[in-house]
Structures are given as C-alpha cells and as structure tokens.
Amino acid sequence: MLKNIILERPLAVIDLETTGVDVKVDRIIEVSVLKISPGGEADHRTRRVNPGVPIPPEATAVHGIGDDDVADCPTFRAIAPGLARYLDGCDLGGFNILKYDLRLLAAEYNRAGLTFPIAGRKVVDACHLFHQRERRDLTAAYKFYCGLDHVGAHGAAADVLATLAILDAQVSRYDDLPRTIDGLHEHCTDPKALDLGGMFGRCDEGTVVFIKGKYKGRSLDDIARTKPDYLQWMLRDDYFDDTKSIASEALRQAG
C-alpha cells in the first residue's frame, strides 16, 4: 500500500468520528486503524463506540452516525485496553492527528482512568504537511495529491485509507520530504520541543522551559518550585504521557 515511505516499525494510521470538535468534552463514536508492517502487510480495523451521550444532529449530518447506530456498541472504556495493545509498538499517522485525534484519544483514556502512551512513538500528520504546502482539507488533499474524489468522506474507514494514500503521494511529490517515518515526524513536530505536545523545550543554556502556555519562557524548575499546583493540574489534565512525565520529574526534583 506504500510506494514511497520506508517503514522501520509498524505504522498505524488513525481516524476518529466523534460527537463534535472540542477535544476536552466531545466523545469518540468510531475508531478506524490501518496498521502497516515494515514488510507491507496491512490490517484494517474499524470499531464503533457508544459515547454515553447523545450525538448532536450536526455531527450526524457530517458522518452519518446517529444514536441508534451505536446504541448496542461497547463504550470507549471497554475497548481502550485492547486498542492500546493493538497500537503497541506502532508509530502513528493521521490527518490532523497532532491537533485533534491524539488529543481526543488522550482525553478519552484519561476519562477511562488510563493513559494513552505517546512517549517513544513517531507521529506523522498528513494535514500538517498538506497545510505547509497547499492549505486545504482532507477531501481537497485527496483530489490534489491522488487525483481522486473522496467517496465516503467523514467515514473513519474511508478517511484512514485516503490519509495513507495522501501521505504516500506527498512523499512522492516533494523531493525534500524524507521517506522514513522518523524524518516525516521531524517535519510534523516542533524541533525545539521535548514532548509531542510542544509544551517544553530547552533554552540556549540548556535549561528546560515552557515554550507555550501561560508560563511560556519560564523555567520548568522555577514553576515546579513556585507553582507546583500548576504542574499537578497538568498531571490530571489531558496532556500526553511524555508531557506528564517531564512535569512529574520536575515536581519530584523540586520536592
């Protein structure tokens, strides 16, 4: 399925359909994962989820999934452990995965009392690369890069197939894009960041500092000493596990 991207580890391309676009409050109603091995074997799984809340009509109008369609489906809490095992050892790909899908997954795992592991993974975002070059949405990206109409747009299974085709076509189109997941990951993330969410980085002197948020530019050690409640709040909130690990270590050293 890939002609231009070289895999050293399995790549799992993820797409979610949800009750809305707010990663803090909205819920997953469909998960589709296309897992590609370095040898080229593909495994595509799609699962619907009962969100436990009514699906707004405006959301149904986008993806066509209503309350009756998920009434007998398992909750996210029920599928979360199995999903984590399925994704274990995989790098991750998607369309807008950095700003949306991964953040919503982190929120859902947090609500389930679990952690969605991010640390150590490479993440490639076809939307990020597309916006760097062309600035459009998934349907336009599929037409632009693959010359095809995106039949079944806003269905997770169709979207994940389109996303993989777009990623592969982007690498073919742009000579300066690397052909490895490690290299593409560097194009999709802040090179100054120590964590996937881009909360922490190092200043010129090597000190770990906040690189965004209300304490942007402040030393992490300083905040750990003077505002430990802020870092404790981060540990409870829907930050990725690598962000929480850095914050937790700073609190431990400050204590």
Supply database-style keywords.
nuclease; 2 domains; 44% helix; Nucleotidyltransferase, domain 5; exonuclease activity; alpha/beta; 11 helices; 3'-5' exonuclease; 5-stranded mixed sheet
Helix/sheet category: alpha/beta
Count of helix runs: 11
Order of helices and strands: EEEHHHEHEHHHHEEHHH
What is the distance, rounded to the nearest whole angstrom, between the alpha carbons of the first and last residues?
51 Å
CATH hierarchy class name of the largest domain: Alpha Beta
Overall geometric form:
globular
Count of domains: 2
> The CATH topology of the largest domain, please?
Nucleotidyltransferase, domain 5
Low-pLDDT runs of 5+ residues are none
Strand content: 5-15%
CATH architecture of the largest domain: 2-Layer Sandwich
Number of strands: 7
Q: What can be said about the biggest beta sheet?
A: 5 strands, mixed
Instruction: Let me know the CATH homologous superfamily of the largest domain.
Output: Ribonuclease H-like superfamily/Ribonuclease H
Strand order, largest beta sheet: 3-2-1-4-5
Mean pLDDT: 94
Helix content: 40-55%
How large, in whole angstroms, is the Cα Rg?
19 Å
